[in-house]
Amino acid sequence: MDDLTKSAFLNRPDLHVQTEGEFAGWRTWSRDNFESHNGPFWHRMEDDGQIRCAFRVENKHLNGQSNVHGGAFMAFADYCLFAMAAPVLQGPGVTVSFGCEFLDAAREGELVEGTGEIMRPEAR
What we know:
By secondary structure, the protein is an alpha+beta fold. The protein has helices at residues 3-10, 33-38, 70-85, and strands at 15-17, 27-29, 42-45, 51-56, 111-116.
């Protein structure tokens, strides 16, 4: 892990690090009221440099059919995109658009995960 990646993950006053439970050691941003209300969503950097994001499905994430609401999936996808880009951003960022297809439903109690590599500018 290079210095830029380390500083992006470790030296941010708005990062909350969970200290207990299933997501002990995982991080989330404390500055985003929308994500805090809709999550909690979590992320961590794996030893291979991959970013892993996850959330445990709660009743508040469900639609009328007891499946995760599409809006909850989209909010999580947005969170994942930012978590993967954050180590190389040099200021604020915003998601403008992205495509999405749902492959399956998720139900209460299930773990939903997203993984990807850090988006480095030189890789474009």
